[in-house]
Specification:
Two copies of one chain form a homodimer. The first copy, chain A, is α+β, with helices and mostly antiparallel strands and 102 residues long. Helices cover 30% and strands 36% of the residues of chain A. Chain A has two helices and four strands, in the order βαβαββ. Chain A has helices at residues 22-36, 49-64, and strands spanning 14-16, 40-46, 68-81, 87-99. Chain A has a four-stranded mixed sheet, with helices on one face. In chain A, helix 1 links the parallel strand 1 and strand 2. In chain A, helix 1 (22-36) packs across helix 2 (49-64). Chains A and B meet through helix 2, strand 3 and strand 4 of A and helix 2, strand 3 and strand 4 of B.
């Protein structure tokens, strides 16, 4: 069995976007920034939730934390194992929000 | 009345992504590249179609034109006038695909 050690000081701030409304994730991101002195938080989503990730990034940046920049956006593809066998592809997005020092 | 002159040599290659399946847009993009010697084509989408835009970019890049790079992704917000009065915000995405010379 492989044992993995986790370095807590390298904690990456990732918020996974699912099927809840954007405002739930806005709250999670604000908490993530304020609880950790983090300079950036990355939103990750796939499939239909990609739109919610974009909505979330836009809402937080325009309404709640105006000192945030979108520092990187990447898209990709993940292969999903299906229960009935075989695989299917699903698109992914990662949006990195970075706090700009005032 | 304002008269606008359109410079045809500066034609920008934009493919608007809507509610059709990704493969329709894949075909439009391939046509856009081959018909114009263009070096890049930009996909534009808003709202629920954002996911389709990401799917389209991934499918064309992985299956059809492997010499394409995603050179820029930007997200934004547009204000939509509603028929019943008032406005609502909708998220937008622009994905620029650029042909890498072999």
């Amino acid at each position: 069995m492989l044992k993995r050690s986790v370095d807590l000081s390298e904690k990456s701030n990732v918020v996974y976007i699912g099927r809840k409304p954007p405002m739930s994730y806005v709250m999670a991101i604000i908490t993530s920034f304020s609880g950790s002195n983090a300079k950036d938080v990355t939103l990750k989503a796939r499939g239909r939730s990609i739109t919610t990730a974009v909505d979330t990034a836009e809402i937080i940046r325009r309404r709640f934390m105006k000192d945030l920049d979108i520092s990187a956006i990447t898209i990709g593809t993940e292969e999903i194992q299906q229960e009935e066998g075989g695989t299917r592809n699903v698109s992914t997005i990662e949006i990195m929000l970075t706090r700009v020092s005032p």
